[in-house]
Amino acid sequence: MSQIFLDTGKVIPVTVIGKISEDLTADMENKPVYIVGISKGKGFAGGMKRWHFSGGPATGGQSTKPRAPGSIGSQTPGRVRKGKKMAGRLGGDRVTIKGLKIVRVMPDQKQLMVSGPVPGARNSKITIELK
């Protein structure tokens, strides 16, 4: 990410998107867009990182499980229900960011500047949908 300073002194955080395959025109500036991409994968993560669980108490007899998720349910139905928040793979999901605008178009370099963040790692593929 980078930033642009307007004539009024306002700072706009932007993301530079390069290698645009379509024809770019200056008419696209200030148009709202949706950006769709694949979020960064973080591998196998525990409950605290994946779901923001609070963990166990820091004192009062706590010994070896300060980051454990705790109880996962009652005796009935005697199984783990679908969708239970537990440890597992984090990231690598399709993410849509709404409410972004095209701040600047650079057709000679085939680049766009979009206000705000864009999902995914550097040089990953994204889809830009004009709203």
UniProtKB/TrEMBL annotation:
Entry's Gene Ontology BP terms: translation
Keyword Ribonucleoprotein assigned to the entry: answer is yes
The record's InterPro entries line, in alphabetical order, gives:
Ribosomal_uL3 (IPR000597), Ribosomal_uL3_bac/org-type (IPR019927), Transl_B-barrel_sf (IPR009000)
Name the segments for region: Disordered: 49-88
The answer, when asked if Ribonucleoprotein is one of the entry's keywords, is yes
State a single Pfam family of this protein: Ribosomal_L3
Determine the domain of life of the protein's source: Bacteria
Under Gene Ontology molecular function, one entry of this record is: structural constituent of ribosome
The UniProt similarity line reads: Belongs to the universal ribosomal protein uL3 family.
Can you name this protein? Answer: Large ribosomal subunit protein uL3
According to its UniProt entry, this protein's organism is: candidate division WWE3 bacterium GW2011_GWC2_41_23
